[in-house]
Amino acid sequence: MGQYDSMKFWKQTIARTFKVCQMCNRPINIGGVYYRERLTDPKINFIGKKVCSDCYKDQIINKSIRK
Ligand SMILES: [Zn+2]
Predict the structure, then answer these.
(1) Is the separation of the CB atoms in 61 and 12 below 8 Å?
(2) Is the pLDDT of residue 1 over 60?
(3) pLDDT of 2 strictly over 70
(4) What's the pLDDT at 7?
(5) What is the number of domains present in the chain?
(6) Residue 29 dihedral angles phi and psi, to the nearest 5°
(7) What's the whole-number mean pLDDT along residues 33-58?
(8) Helix (H, G, I), strand (E, B) or coil at 31
(9) What local confidence, expressed as pLDDT, does residue 67 receive?
(10) Which domain holds residue 18?
């Protein structure tokens, strides 16, 4: 954790395959919206978190407002 923090952003994505939220472990169905952590520099090999829209709103937006 840490070195890429300033380059991270969250991209809204439509699930093309079945996924599981990495925060609450609930399933994300095919065609559902989820949020994926990305880096602004695509050359860096980075595997970001995938979270459902509920976790994104609860954890990520709320957290960044409090900062
Ligand atoms: Zn979730």
Answers:
(1) no
(2) no
(3) yes
(4) 94
(5) 1
(6) -75, 160
(7) 94
(8) coil
(9) 56
(10) 5-66
Using the mean position of ligand 1's atoms as its centre, give its distance from the Cα of residue 63 in Å.
Answer: 15
Which residue(s) pair with 38 in the sheet? 9
Residue 4 CA to ligand 1 centre (angstroms): 23
Residue-level pLDDT at 66: 62
Please tell me the distance between residue 3's alpha carbon and the centre of ligand 1 in angstroms: 25
Instruction: Give residue-wise pLDDT tens across range 7-32.
Output: 999 999 999 999 999 999 999 999 99
- How many angstroms is it from 27 CA to the middle of ligand 1? 8
CA 9 to ligand 1 center in whole angstroms? 17
Distance (angstroms) between ligand 1 centre and the Cα of 28 equals 8
Output the CA torsion sign for 29, 31, 32, 37. Answer: positive
Distance 40 CA to ligand 1 centre (A): 23
Whole-number Å distance between alpha carbons of 62 and 45: 28
